[in-house]
């Protein structure tokens, strides 16, 4: 097996019971270990190194880790659980770039553009496989691994259906904003949901899953709306009529004041997300509540709200 030299860096090790002082670095380390490839797979290893050279914010992993910790899961297992949803999210980004023909990702060339579609598809598939592989390390929760495996499959399947819905020409031609919101939730919601639901399943809190799912679904819808507001000009350049499914463009088609409408819609859904997150056991929804506050501030800045 081969991999980047940083995989053996003791500064990013996370022994059982040890506090995590640099969560993003430990998540990156865990993910890179999970996708290590056999010697001789030079192109794939180069693509792995390239992808991790420009990391994202690890939002799903951070939500998963803090949820797991609040529920009493030990730090090393919480890192593993958190990395599952983050690996799947990264797989979706790599595949999305192929579908959308995006040449840039996180300030550098997308994997398919740097190499080719085949390398990108294989890398995305590897990330998906690695997410399931991490589950094997959760042997402490052996009796709860079957429902966890089922849960991961369900959320991957839901993400795929959501992606297909967002690509539908019927959606882009629709004048119903609700369809755009449902597509956004369908594409982004499942992996946010998995970040919270996986720790709940491992700790036996099955009855709380629906609150977590609805809370993250509302959050994911507004997270996508914020991205669409930021990407408005680029999306309109691609599709001057429909904005390539951009949610702000959809609001323009039904409202003379789309930005205030986006702000009020966001306030409504984020309040709902926080209300549902507050019902989760052991205050395990606190991280999501905090992220809702940050997202609300972001939306207000994007829509020109004062105060």
From TrEMBL:
Gene Ontology terms, MF aspect: metal ion binding; prenyltransferase activity
- On whether Transferase is a keyword of this UniProt record, the answer is yes
* Organism listed in the record: Kushneria sinocarnis
Fetch the InterPro entries from UniProt. Answer: Isoprenoid_synthase_dom_sf, Polyprenyl_synt, Polyprenyl_synt_CS
Q: Which SUPFAM superfamilies match?
A: Terpenoid synthases (SSF48576)
Which protein are we looking at? Answer: Geranylgeranyl diphosphate synthase type II
Any single biological process term in GO: isoprenoid biosynthetic process
The answer to whether keyword Magnesium applies is yes
Query: What keywords is this UniProt entry annotated with?
Result: Magnesium, Metal-binding, Transferase
Co-factor(s): Mg(2+)
Query: Of which family is this protein a member?
Result: Belongs to the FPP/GGPP synthase family.
Q: Which Gene3D superfamilies match?
A: Farnesyl Diphosphate Synthase
């Amino acid at each position: 097996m081969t991999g980047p030299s940083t995989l053996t860096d003791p500064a990013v090790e996370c022994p059982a019971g040890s506090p995590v002082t640099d969560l993003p670095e430990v998540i990156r380390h865990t993910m890179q270990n999970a996708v290590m490839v056999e010697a001789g797979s030079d192109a794939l290893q180069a693509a792995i190194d390239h992808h991790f050279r420009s990391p994202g914010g690890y939002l799903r992993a951070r939500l998963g880790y803090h949820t797991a910790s609040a529920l009493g899961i030990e730090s090393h297992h919480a890192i593993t659980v958190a990395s599952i949803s983050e690996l799947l999210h990264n797989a979706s980004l790599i595949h999305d770039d192929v579908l959308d023909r995006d040449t840039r990702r996180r300030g550098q060339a997308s994997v398919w553009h740097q190499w080719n579609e085949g390398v990108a598809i294989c890398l995305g598939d590897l990330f998906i496989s690695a997410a399931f592989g991490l589950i094997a390390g959760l042997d402490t929760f052996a009796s709860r691994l079957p429902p966890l495996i089922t849960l991961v499959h369900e959320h991957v399947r839901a993400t795929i259906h959501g992606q297909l819905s967002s690509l539908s020409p019927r959606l882009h031609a629709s004048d119903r904003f609700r369809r755009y919101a449902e597509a956004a939730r369908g594409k982004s919601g499942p992996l946010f949901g998995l970040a919270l639901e996986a720790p709940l399943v491992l700790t036996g809190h099955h009855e709380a899953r629906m609150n977590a799912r609805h809370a993250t679904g509302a959050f994911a819808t507004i997270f996508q709306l914020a991205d669409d507001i930021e990407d408005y000009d680029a999306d309109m350049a691609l599709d001057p009529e429909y904005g390539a499914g951009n949610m702000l463009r959809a609001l323009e088609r039904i409202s003379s004041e789309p930005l205030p409408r986006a702000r009020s819609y966001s306030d409504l859904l984020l309040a709902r997300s926080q209300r549902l997150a507050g019902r989760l056991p052991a205050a395990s929804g606190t991280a999501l509540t905090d992220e809702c506050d940050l997202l609300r501030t972001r939306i207000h800045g994007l829509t020109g709200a004062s105060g």
